[in-house]
Design a protein that fits this description.
The structure is a homodimer. By secondary structure, the first copy, chain A, is α/β, with parallel strands linked by helices. Chain A has 8 helices and 9 strands. Chain A has a single domain, classed as Rossmann fold (3-Layer(aba) Sandwich). An 8-stranded mixed β-sheet of chain A has the order 3-2-1-4-5-6-7-8, sandwiched between helices. In chain A, strand 1, helix 1 and strand 2 form a beta-alpha-beta unit. In chain A, helix 1 runs parallel beside helix 2. The first copy, chain A, is globular, with a radius of gyration of 16 Å. The relative contact order of chain A is 0.14. At the A-B interface, helix 6, helix 8 and strand 9 of A face helix 6, helix 8 and strand 9 of B. Strand 9 of chain A pairs antiparallel with strand 9 of chain B, so a sheet runs across the interface.
């Protein structure tokens, strides 16, 4: 697949690198400096390049949205026409200080995003693990029990694309249902963040659901 | 320990039974019928009995609050003076139809509960797994990697009691921090519920966090 990265910070930079190493063609875009994008592309190998958001979006099979919430409108504007595009978003609707969600409970960042680009196919994924765990999971993807990664969305075809990218990144995808489930997934991300950044065991944290036979 | 069960429905009934089987003295209270309480106590063995909420609270080392949110005020009133008591709550702040949280984002059910009983020591725990998984986890507690159970609260001593009960139930407790983290834990419960009750793999679902060595 050809994957455009909108926002090449910690999450976008690492996920783009992983997608390129997994065999996809990747265009990094929207970083503070052009040099950062070029360095990311060089380090990610021959399938990666640096470009503008419009270049990242052009002919993309999927776009990863990984900007701070305050930058969403700007990057979408720079990306241009996103009709029909699969948008996999890990952008949480955080305030400027990154201390609290600004959209929650009766809506979610993913739902607000979908309203901004109604002709695109928005999937919420990749927000629920810290960037610090991504390379560790990718490099241990041959293990028996991969960590899970939940995702949700309203478009069946787009969900298949997201599930493939989640698998390619070393996780075992868990379909959590329609896009409105992001109302639960986004606060879950803050729980994971609390454990990762305030807990004693460090930020390289993932999770796995386990189904049992029912007894009793 | 002596543990009072306030609300002997699906969660309270099963957890009380598990606590009694783990060696604690348990008093079941607050069910629709007295017969239900007596049946629960009989099935849970010689360490279990049936009583009123006030009898459950008397001399209790911990109280499990497991009523529907609409019943919280009533059961607290019936329980009487809860000063100094450890209250382990798995009561989610759901609306009457159980379709949405009525407290979220800027507060949580656990925090609202703590405001109702300011002299008690409130811990949020046990809400994050479906009742359907409890016996399965308890009966497989000797496995190498137990499922986790997150809990939070502001009182160190009460957190130790809660962690012990979580361990006794077959889980590996994860301290998620202060009580306000219930703002993230309660929506996470709804995510777990979505996977358990709307997903293809059934309701006997638990979860485990996994910490990796950080790479890259």
């Amino acid at each position: 697949m050809r994957i455009g990265i909108l926002g090449s910070g910690l999450m976008g930079g690492k996920l783009g690198t992983i997608f390129a190493r997994a065999g996809h063609e990747v265009v990094f875009s929207y970083s503070k400096t052009k040099g950062k994008l070029e360095r990311l592309a060089r380090d990610a190998g021959s399938r990666a390049s640096a470009g503008s958001p419009a270049e990242a979006a052009r002919d993309a099979d999927a776009l990863l949205l990984a900007v701070h919430w305050s930058r969403v409108d700007d990057v979408l504007k720079q990306a241009g026409n996103l009709s029909g595009k699969v948008i996999v978003s890990c952008s949480l609707p955080m305030n400027a200080k990154d201390t609290a969600l600004v959209v929650a409970h009766t809506s979610s960042g993913a739902e607000q995003l979908a309203k901004k680009i109604p002709k695109a196919r928005v999937i919420s994924a990749f927000s629920t693990v810290p960037s610090e765990v991504l390379f560790s999971v990718f490099e241990s993807a041959n293990r028996a029990a991969r960590p899970n990664l939940v995702y949700c969305g309203d478009d069946t075809k787009a969900k298949k694309v997201a599930a493939q990218l989640i698998t390619d990144a070393g996780f075992d995808p868990v379909d959590a249902g329609p896009l409105r489930i992001a109302r639960f997934i986004e606060p879950f991300t803050l729980l994971v963040g609390q454990l990762a950044y305030e807990g004693p065991r460090g930020p390289a944290l993932a999770y796995r659901f386990e189904w049992f036979d029912e007894r009793g």
